Amino acid sequence: MNISAANRSVLTSMHRVLEQLCDGDWSAVRVACVPNGIEYRFLACVAEGRRPDVYGFLAVHTDMPIPVDGGPLNLSEEQAIELGQLDPAKALAAAAAPRARRAATRKSGGRSEAALG
Question: Order of strands across the sheet with 39-46?
Answer without folding.
Answer: 29-36, 39-46, 73-75
